[in-house]
From TrEMBL:
<dbReference type="GO" id="GO:0008967">
    <property type="term" value="F:phosphoglycolate phosphatase activity"/>
</dbReference>
<dbReference type="InterPro" id="IPR023214">
    <property type="entry name" value="HAD_sf"/>
</dbReference>
<dbReference type="InterPro" id="IPR022468">
    <property type="entry name" value="PhnX-like"/>
</dbReference>
<keyword id="KW-0378">Hydrolase</keyword>
<protein>
    <submittedName>
        <fullName>Phosphonatase-like hydrolase</fullName>
    </submittedName>
</protein>
<dbReference type="GO" id="GO:0006281">
    <property type="term" value="P:DNA repair"/>
</dbReference>
<dbReference type="Pfam" id="PF00702">
    <property type="entry name" value="Hydrolase"/>
</dbReference>
<dbReference type="InterPro" id="IPR036412">
    <property type="entry name" value="HAD-like_sf"/>
</dbReference>
<dbReference type="InterPro" id="IPR050155">
    <property type="entry name" value="HAD-like_hydrolase_sf"/>
</dbReference>
<dbReference type="GO" id="GO:0005829">
    <property type="term" value="C:cytosol"/>
</dbReference>
<dbReference type="InterPro" id="IPR006439">
    <property type="entry name" value="HAD-SF_hydro_IA"/>
</dbReference>
């Protein structure tokens, strides 16, 4: 492996329901009141879409003007929640990133958040120097589940073969992005939005208890033969 593309919330950054709360408050600000059937339907859709571009999720619920307003409300809510409760890394995440980079693996931190929220996370955790590259949906034509974020990381970091990329995330959209990009390791972690079954269904090649286990997986992984086929692995 030469590049590891790691998700933020739920993967390297502990979520603690902050994202779901921000979504719920954002759609409530647009008039979809909590306790209504419409609010429940919207939240069910949002939970299924976790990992995708936030503005695209809102576009799937509202017209463009209302989607933009909802996205701004989400950013405000998320900021306020961080102000009240803070942010913390998933245990072992910072050490995992350090191990990967120390072994020569370049790290890209990916997200479905807009640039403003991504910057808030990196500022709060002091993580600007933890990665070789950071990308968000505003950097690409299409956000997750399309492969553009991972392929953009490959281009910017000079990857010579997409099979030398590892993708790690906590949602089905993360897994789809990794598979569509051609990454040979698409690791789902159990610290975020989606469970083991959903991650495997979306194409995870490995299931890890957390991102802390990723270095042990990819630092010992040899380059696969082009015709090699592997079955999903579960690491407990």
């Amino acid at each position: 492996m030469t590049v590891a593309c790691l998700d933020l919330a739920g993967t390297t950054v502990a979520d603690d329901d902050t994202v779901e709360t921000a979504f719920a408050e954002a759609i409530a600000a647009l008039g979809t009141a909590p306790g209504t059937a419409a609010h429940q339907r919207a939240m069910t859709h949002i939970r299924a879409s976790r990992g995708g571009s936030k503005i695209e999720i809102f576009r799937s619920l509202f017209d463009e003007a209302r989607a933009q307003a909802a996205n701004m409300a989400f950013q405000r809510s998320y900021d306020q929640l961080v102000d009240r409760h803070g942010l913390r890394a998933v245990p072992g995440a910072a050490d995992a990133i350090e191990r990967l980079r120390g072994a020569g693996v370049r790290v890209c931190l990916l997200t479905g958040f807009g640039r403003t929220t991504q910057a808030r996370i990196l500022d709060t955790l002091g993580w600007w120097d933890h990665a070789d590259l950071t990308l968000c949906p505003e950097d690409v034509e299409r956000g997750r589940p399309w492969p553009d974020l991972v392929l953009t990381a490959a281009l910017r970091l000079g990857v010579d073969d997409v099979r030398h990329i590892a993708v790690c995330g906590d949602t089905a959209n993360d897994m789809l992005t990794g598979r569509r990009s051609g990454a040979s390791v698409v690791a789902g972690v159990l610290t975020g939005a989606h469970d083991r079954a959903r991650l495997l269904t979306a194409g995870a090649t490995h299931i890890l208890p957390s991102v802390a286990a990723l270095p042990d997986l990819i630092l010992k992984k040899t380059r696969p033969h082009p015709d090699q086929r592997t079955e999903p692995s579960v690491i407990n």
